[in-house]
Amino acid sequence: MSSAPRRAAGGSVIVLVALWLLCIPLRVPGAMAIVELGGALCGFAFGFCLAMVTRTRKPALIYLWLAFAALTMWPVLSDWPAANPATIYAWPGAPPLVYTAFDVMRIVAFVIALIPPFALLGQHGPDA
User: What mean pLDDT is reported for the chain?
Assistant: First the structure.
């Protein structure tokens, strides 16, 4: 396996940790970790399902994996895991966008976490 998929996977993990560090000024690292991990697990499952689509040539299995991929999006779209914005204690005069950090982190973690399984397990290239 080339080193490019491994670099993509490692870079994704580094970005997720760096994004989690942004919650320290908000003083909610525990709640943000739960939200970020929930979104990342769903994204990882989504990327795995898409990687499995690239590995099969049977139409029934392709549609089955796509159905599983669609199911992994449900928790993110339904705001799972739930986070209470009232628990964010931002600095005085903080902009209102600070309070949407949980919703943004859930989606960003989903998108970033789908990269490693797809990069490592997906078949990238023309059919032989």
Answer: 84
